[in-house]
Design a protein that fits this description.
about 0% strand
C-alpha cells in the first residue's frame, strides 16, 4: 500500500507541472482561431508567438522576480469611492433557477 501512496504523491507533483506547462502553451504558443493570435499577444504581454524551445528556455533560466505587492480592497478602490455594501430587501421574491 505504501508504494501506491508514494506514486500518488509523485503523480500530483507531475500533474501540477503538466497543468502549468499546458497553460503556458495555451497562452503563449497556440494561435487561436477567433483571436488570430495568442492570448498573451492579445493582452499585450508578448509581441511574438513563442516556440516550445522558447517556453522551455524561459522555464529553465533563473529569474529574479520581485514579490507581488499586497493588494487590499482599499488600495484597489479609486479615491473617494467606498466599498459596496449589500443589504437584504425585506419581502424579496425568490425565483427558481432555469
Amino acid at each position: 500500500m505504501l508504494s501506491f501512496q508514494g506514486r500518488g504523491i509523485a503523480f500530483s507533483l507531475n500533474l501540477k507541472a503538466s497543468v502549468a506547462l499546458h497553460f503556458a502553451h495555451y497562452n503563449l504558443c497556440r494561435v487561436h482561431k477567433t483571436l488570430r493570435c495568442t492570448p498573451a499577444m492579445a493582452l499585450g504581454t508578448t509581441d511574438h508567438i513563442w516556440t516550445i524551445g522558447d517556453l522551455v528556455q524561459a522555464a529553465l533560466e533563473p529569474q529574479d522576480v520581485p514579490p507581488l505587492p499586497d493588494r487590499t480592497p482599499q488600495s484597489t478602490l479609486k479615491y473617494g469611492y467606498a466599498p459596496l455594501k449589500l443589504r437584504v430587501i425585506p419581502g424579496g421574491k425568490m425565483t427558481k433557477p432555469r
